[in-house]
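Collaborator request, handled under Task 6.
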Amino acid sequence: MKTALRYLACVVILAAALAAIHAYVVIPFRCNQEKKRATQTTTEAFKYTGSFAAIQSGRATMIRLAPCFRAGCLDVPLYMAMAANARLAGRSDEAIRLYTEALELDHRPEIYYNLAEAQLQLGRRVEAYHNYIEAVLFNPFFLHEIDDGDLRSRVYQQVIQRRPREKEFYKYVNETPVLNWH
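Structure tokens returned to the collaborator:
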């Protein structure tokens, strides 16, 4: 009887160890591989935003990344990858939700910028305006990424108003052509 209990205890411990290895090693490894793949496919798909191929790519990438999300996920790049692909797939509301959740974890200029882009896709100009401002306050070169001329001008004016001591710097950034980053 004691031998059987010891054997059962060993089996239970082994099963728990295998489950832990799967949860804390195998799944994160696979998710990191999938994030890398997602970064490559998403970057390529954004060149063709709005096309059927880009929409399909966004949807497929979201499906591949979905198993990586779990309760308590604190992986900001994963949120950003999912949100970017939601935008590609035409799901701007979902992208906004994901970018907002990413901001709860970390305040990065690219999150504010991409959140503003998603909001602008839905015609939410006032919200986009405020998030563009935050992005530019973090990284002035995001000013060059704002395609809407009127919105860009308003963001520029607001940033100067908030940081009058840095007016000359922002003026320089605004007036200096930037090489294409993409």
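The cover message to the collaborator said: "Residues 2-46 form the longest helix (45 residues). The chain has one domain: 40-175. Please let us know whether this matches your experimental observations."
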